[in-house]
Amino acid sequence: MTLVPLGDQAILVYLPNELAAIRFVAAVREANPQWLQDVVPAYASVGVFFDPDAIRTVDVLAWLRETALNPGKFDYLDPGHPRSFHIPVCYALEQDMARVCAHTGLSPDDIIRLHSGIEYTVHAIGFVPGFPYLGYLPAELSGVGRLHSPRVQVEPGSVGLTGRQTGIYPLPRPGGWNLIGRTPLVIVDVAVGFFPLRVGDHVRFVPIDEPTFRQLQGSRLEPRDTVQVSQDGVPPPAGSLV
Questions:
Q1: What is the rounded CA–CA span in Å between residue 152 and residue 173?
Q2: Domain with 14 in it: what CATH number?
Q3: What is the CATH number of the domain that holds 200?
Q4: What is the largest CA-CA distance in the chain?
Q5: 214-239 pLDDT, tens digit each
Q6: Helix/strand/coil (H/E/C) assignment for every residue in the chain
Q7: 182 CB contacts (<8 Å, ≥6 apart)?
Q8: 20-35 tens-digit pLDDT
Q9: Is 13 within the bounds of a domain?
Q10: Global model pTM greater than 0.85
Q11: Domain residue limits at 190
């Protein structure tokens, strides 16, 4: 474990792996010292934000070392059961499938099968509010670089990939990932504080067709198992969003 001060209000903690980071977050939140303001995990690192008027940085460092080395609060702490989401994706609404095919040597059908064939973990939330960094891609899909020139604006719900990661653009923003589809679901509503995905959650993508996309467009991703879509892309009866 490595601790690095970030100014006078935060400490960046580097852990051995993603699971260790999730357990460390659970330990800090369980202790919930009065000076704690926020705990932000990202892959194998954790940002711990504190009130500098309530405690000195050196004391936070000492407290974090004690917490991390205490097996009762870290090594054997149960981080809880992750929630599972099924997120529909219309892969026909792609913009960079040809680029991904050229890099991987795979057909579009193979890319869709591989991308939707595994369960991902939310390892971080950034670079805009609610953007989930999901890992890890199958080896066959890994290694595709970002676009040489990022798009000025990516439509919300766009599903992209780069390197070993895939993710969903929740808001219209610039972006340089390879877009291979789009979900009709709203995964962020900043105005009302709607952020259903959190670090540690599991996500599986479900292929749908364009009529199903239009029917589901604007529905919200709920914080539990979501849209039930049959394998042929036909949506369920109205009211089946759970």
A1: 7
A2: 3.30.1360.40
A3: 2.40.100.10
A4: 58
A5: 999 999 998 554 444 444 444 443 33
A6: CEEEEECCCEEEEECCCHHHHHHHHHHHHHHCCCCEEEEEEECCEEEEEECCCCCCHHHHHHHHHHHHHCCCCCCCCCCCCCCEEEEEEECCCCCCHHHHHHHHCCCHHHHHHHHCCCCEEEEEEECCCCEEEEECCCHHHCCECCCCCCEEEECCCEEEEEECEEEECCCCEEECCEEEEECCCECCEHHHCECCCCCCCEEEEEECCHHHHHHHCCCECCCCCCCCCCCCCCCCCCCCCC
A7: 89, 90, 93, 94, 155, 157, 158, 159, 213
A8: 888 888 888 888 999 9
A9: yes
A10: no
A11: 84-216
pLDDT band for 76, please (50, 70, 90 cuts): very low
Q: What is the pLDDT of residues 193-215, one digit of tens each?
A: 999 998 889 999 999 999 999 99
My answer on whether 95 and 204 are in the same domain is: yes
93 & 210 share domain: yes
Q: Is the dihedral of CA 67, 70, 75, 76 positive or negative?
A: negative
Same domain, 88 and 207: yes
- The mean of the pLDDT values for the chain is 88
Q: Work out how many domains the chain is built from and give that number.
A: 2
Report which of 94, 88, 112, 100 is spatially closest to residue 179, judged by C-alpha positions. 94
Asked whether the bond before 136 is cis by omega within 30 degrees of 0, the reply is yes
Please indicate, yes or no, if residue 223 is contained in any of the structural domains.
no
